Amino acid sequence: MIWYINSKAPPQLPMPFYQRMLVSTAPRATFLIRLLIGLVFLSEGIQKFLFPASLGVGRFLKIGIPAPQVMAPFVGVVEILCGSLLVLGMLSRMATVPLLAVISVAIVSTKLPMLFAGNLWGMAHEARADYSMLMGLLFLLVVGPGPLSIDRYWTKNSAGTEGERS
Question: Is the pTM for the entire model greater than 0.90?
Answer without folding.
Answer: no
